[in-house]
Amino acid sequence: MSQNFRPGLSSAATTSTLGLLADLAGTWIGTGFNIIALPDFDKRPPSTGPKPFRLELNTTQETLTFTPIGGNVPNRGSLTAFPSPQDPTPTGQNDINLHGLTYLQQVSDANTHSGIHIEPGIWIRVPASNIPKQEETYVRLATIPHGDSLVAQSSFAQNVPGGPKIDETESSLPIGIPHEAQQDYNQPYFFTAPPAGAQKSWIINPNLALTAAIQNQKIIKTTVLQISTDPAGGIVNIPFVVKNANAVKMTAIFWIETVEQANGSTFQQLQYTQNVTLDFLGIQWPHISVATLVKF
């Protein structure tokens, strides 16, 4: 038998090896909100140019499907056996087995039904290790058709009682604008009309769409997965992206929620907030996406 052969795991075994990722398996469907600033020097519709930038706002419909990887994914360690006659104890790092799920995210505009995002990727559970010295972590690998690939590692991953703690001070306003220009650059965020299905307050803080979705719910348990491309990981972009609107950092929080209904039954709900920092005109522009999805 080939050493590279990896027999598949049973469904029960796969679930037990996924850790906090186990409840992601399946298909989630729901709605959300998206805000992004784009360079805008073009007079042709739909541009509002010539201006430094324009805002694109979308209420969204989303399908997010996770499929468990049916087997071990071995990562080779650097174990050194018998380093010296005086100390024959092996040192270094043993091999580890990763486990995870592939996913496909598909997002469209809720009003025009046009597709605005598609993303294949993988979530993996990385066990604790000696080299490097770290506790168990969770990692998201993503590929975006604009020409971006990213690796984001968890900074917090835990089951907590009750509902999520959603940041209601999140801001989509650009960062690094000279003081004398702040009014001009911030004005579109305060005076642009929201798309149908969204509230005006969501433009400044998209996280308010998440709190609105759960304000009357009884959430009894939440799995929190907080990830970032910094300091461990990163984003790699094609030269066109780098030179025109460079994606330099991504942070996100995923909340897998157990919601209890009036009759005592429960269902699972997935919420997330994601902030991608775009860099153009020497300014950092938060590109924020949020969604509330239910497992089907």
Précis, in short:
The protein has five helices and eleven strands. By secondary structure, it is mainly beta.
CATH architecture: Beta Barrel
Provide the spatial order of strands within the biggest beta sheet: 1-2-4-5-6-7-8-9-10-11
Approximately what portion of the residues adopt beta-strand conformation?
A: over 45%
String of helices and strands: HEEEEEEEHHHEHEEE
Write the layout of secondary structure elements.
Layout lengths: L10 H7 L8 E14 L13 E16 L4 E3 L20 E14 L5 E12 L10 E8 L3 E14 L20 H10 L9 H4 L2 H8 L3 E20 L1 H6 L1 E15 L5 E15 L2 E13 L1
Antiparallel strand pairs: 1-2, 1-11, 2-4, 3-4, 4-5, 5-6, 6-7, 7-8, 8-9, 9-10, 10-11
Structure report:
The structure is a single chain. The chain has a ten-stranded antiparallel barrel with strand order 1-2-4-5-6-7-8-9-10-11. It has helices at 11-17, 182-191, 201-204, 207-214, 239-244, and strands at residues 26-39, 53-68, 73-75, 96-109, 115-126, 137-144, 148-161, 218-237, 246-260, 266-280, 283-295. The protein is globular and about 75 Å long. Helix content is 12%, strand content 49%. The protein is built from five helices and eleven strands; from the N terminus they run αβββββββαααβαβββ. The chain has 296 residues and is mainly beta.
